[in-house]
Records
---
Amino acid sequence: MSLPPQFLDEIRARVPLSRVIGRKVVWDLRRSNQAKGDWWAPCPFHGEKTASFHVDDQKGFYYCFGCHAKGDALTFLREAEGMGFMEAVELLASEAGLQMPERDPRQAERADRRTGLVEVMEQAARWFRLQLQGGAAADARAYLARRGLDDAACEQFGIGFAPDQRQGLFNALRGKGIDPALIIEAGLVAKPDDGGAPFDRFRGRITFPIRDGRGRCIAFGGRSMDPNARAKYLNSPETPLFDKGRNLYNVGPARAAVAKGKPLIVAEGYMDVIALVRAGFEGAVAPLGTAITEDQLRLMWRVSPEPVIALDGDDAGLRAALRLIDLALPMTAPGQALRFAFLPQGQDPDDLIRAKGAGAMSAVLDEARPLVDLLWRRETEGRVFDSPERRAALDKALGDAIAKIPDKDTRDHYFQALKDLKWQLFNNRRRRDEAPARPARPMREGGGKGRDRDARFQPVAPVAPTRASRLSSPDASEHDAEVLIEAMVLAICATHPELIAPVESRLERLEPQDTDRAALVHDLLSGTQSQAGQRALESILADPHVKAAPAILRPHEGDAASGILTNALDRIEARRAAREEIARAEAEIEGMADEGLTWRMAQSARARQQADHPSLADLSDLGEDSESFRAVLEAALKNEIWRKPRR
């Protein structure tokens, strides 16, 4: 129904916002200025002790400085009370003493029909409650007593009993003058397809009324007393009142409890919710016989910004949690998070509370983990990442998952959290698996005993670009080579961003000395763009050695670029390892030999390093300049560099 804007403005003007919200909060009168319509209170949308929730009667808006909830009176009734838009308007119009505009006749008919269905459901709930006191319900009462539910609990939750009679409820409601068509539409009885007499849907079952956010009975759940029943639990069918994917059991009382600071706990069934509430966890709800849906997630987040999913300690509970990951990730955002609490193996909340009390349940809830931890567990548990391909597969799976998160800030924080977890996993594995390197033995014919193979290095004549490179000149320094290799690494990653994920951990260890290049590394890893990083990239791409490389000239050739990138990183890491080895060796022999020996050994090691890991001349072909460095080595040996020159 379309309402005139003037009508809504009149409602807002006549009903102070503080009057609407005041039914749900306790005002902080020391901070509030009642005369000016300026009010402060603890927020009803998230648990807190300080008054960060502000209501301005003059402007007609509220805002929470903690969870950032905001809106007007209609928004508040919809978010805090679970009302529909028209329901909220009708309530405020009644308080304002205004007559609702004339409704469309069909809409009025539907609204009247819903009101009639609600009345039918309330009549059924009272009848089921009465039947629980009868002789046919002896087994049901005994079962409830074994589960720790006394008369007070049954009264609190409206628990009843449906006798095993084909038309017990149907005849009782007809006796009250209720139209049979209305009883059928409410889902209380079923009409056979062959045109036979309607029969009760719930028979021989303990009944649990399902109520909406306003406390109206909209459906029932029934627990069978027959162990051989086809379905242990049965819910009402879809009706004009009830959509099982859009409602939660106990949502109304849970919303009130969360407003008072209680956590929102999502359990699996009716008995779990009842056990939690009676143990002091009043903010408990449950889905209605199905896996959690998108609509149910949205409803949970309207109640609390961070519901705790309390899952049974079995394989089914874990599978339910893992299924929820892909549903929740595209919906996560600031103020819309999830935590997961796993109960001991083979126990649900009801079992745990009856066995060990509320303290044990509190301990489980205190250990609840965020969604990112569950995602990590799903992608890594029981798997071994002992090869580049397996690590790349992990990177891809995690990347695909967090790419579903629409909010950039949330996505960035997920990226950082997963990066930290990967570092811990691979670093611990590396420390455990690494062993001291052994010198390579000469290769032999056939891979076994026999004549030593001719393993002499067969040089390849350098091509023209190599000979022209500044790195092949006698004046080229080791530092120049490494800076240029580093530039190629950064250029390839910027040109081929799809290659970053497989080498992410290696990029993190790059540590350029140039601050602009360090900023570029951060940009590449985080997907951001900074001025310093952009400045470094422009400088790198202007270098003739870089821009002439095939990987940059032909960016569509990703496979070639991948090989060059891996090779370049290998060179950088080999040089770093050689420097560290030299430093350790020099430290170990210090004091054991004279200064000349120390200097000569360092020079010899550096010459060997240059021979084993030649610089990058033509960056399209790593290794073409090995001939020039072989000449450096031969010259060093010929001049006996281990002898320090006399002064």
Note: The mean pLDDT is 80.
---
Amino acid sequence: MTGGEVGTKQTGGAAGAKHEPSSWVEVLASPEELRERHPFVGWAWGLLRLDYTGIAFAALFFCWSLTPSLLPRDWLYQGLIGGITAAIGYGVGTAVGWAVNRLLLGRLPWWPPPAKVQLALKITVPTLSLLVSIGMLIAAAAWQRELAALTDAEGTTTTGYLRTLALSILVAALLISLWRVLRDLVRLVARYLNRWLKVPRSAAAPIGVVLVAFLSYTMVTDVLFDAAYAAINSAFSLQNNTTREGVEQPAAPERSGSPDSYASWESLGFEGRNFVSRGMHSDELAAVNGKPAPEPIRVYAGLETAPDADARLDVVIAELERTGAFQRSVLVVIPTTGTGWVNPTAAEAIELVHNGDSALVASQYSYLPSWISFLADRNKAAEAGRALIDRVHERWLREPAETRPKLLIYGESLGTQAGEAAFDGLADIRETVDGVLWVGPPNSNTLWSQLEARRDPGTRQVEPVYSDGLVVRFANDAASIGSPASPWMKPRVLYVQHPSDPVVWWSPDLIFNRPDWLSEPPGDDRLPDMRWFPFVTFWQVAADLANAAGVPDGHGHNYGTTVLDGWVAVAAPDGWTVDDTERVRAAIDARAGTQGPEK
């Protein structure tokens, strides 16, 4: 019998005796023989052996993952995303294959086909999947270059991007093997339940699924997640005690952390020390604006400034009173993101616009970066933002109405969610403060979502118009802040959001529903070729979150000096001109690179 023939040969000559494969074709078709003769090798091979319907679906999902998303990504990052997506596709494919075989093919007399036909399929399906994936990778590299050009980022090469495939195969194989380990564990539990506890086989399998699922969930959430959260929190708490190179304790009494301050320099934390020590001083402001300027006020409380949140806010109010903040022309409350970071460009912009006649106040509520806080403890951000705004507003109301400063709110990213939490709605904002600038709001923001859902008919989701722009407006860039041309009442509320910012557009709804922003004409920096696919688009945009700030200013989650244009629209002093805006922008650009990007 030749190696290409399919058949078996008997051992020992007895009828019904155990047979061994007569060719490697049969080994592929029947791994049970291998498993019986070599249990461990058979089990390991079972982890690697693939379902060919699953391979076809994995290739399809992998190709979907290569279609353009919001931001460009390099081959390494795309390899991780492609592998995860391919593993999801493999799971879908195996489920579809099982159902079709069980309900249809299994009832046909000619199924399964001969071994040679099966072998042909097992060669054809992976080969075609590989060739199609390579072809899609070539197209994806071209998309990535177009997307990089739209976002002013560096493009990729086709040959370099082909490395994505190897990494994706490795990632998908690891995930599929992990799933099979869990599946085998379910079978093992069911076997012991049947053998030891005499649980019927029909009930042992479901019980095994429940037990393994419960143990896996407990392991991930109560052990791995909590351990990871504690480790990350510990790591960032250690960073919180460090100080960036070049940052020094302020001497001016108008700053928290100075020798005159109720909040010690050591207690402000990493981002708090950055905030109070940076920014222009009165002589620098005077040089830019051509007229004398007071020293701008910056008030901050870190997590270690006081033992609890209420005590920290007591320090904040005492600092505002000590520095004379309620006698300035504007008082800006800034609910922070994650670690207590305040956008240095936004802080400098409002101080330049008002020539130092300003007071900025912020408070830290966490050691963790914004994206971790968003995933793990977003309620904490909302509570902290509400408490800060409420306490400052309560004290501000005690000042005479004719002399107290304009009360402004600024928030970026998770800070917008913290800021929104202080208000019951748009009417409450107008009755409480004198202007709001919110930048890069997360899609889960309650007020933002309500306004966007009730946008004027015919306006796009990426740039909605609400009530003809009478009170609240949405803008993608400096040019669009003035749209529509209808009157804009004061106090003004402005959201600034990029079409390419995944923080704004990521939502669990992407799993099953195509959003309006993917049905409409794209924004200026989104590729028209981006399409919605179930599950896949959700993972793609979720992956973009990790790289949201990894693109140049003006794209993704980097808003650059657009915050200056926002401040001018919301809170410019009387007589402000376009030339004034460009003078301030030039001053901010000249200092670019001296401020850290941490969030």
Note: The beta strands are 8-10, 19-21, 297-301, 330-335, 358-363, 406-412, 435-439, 472-475, 492-496.
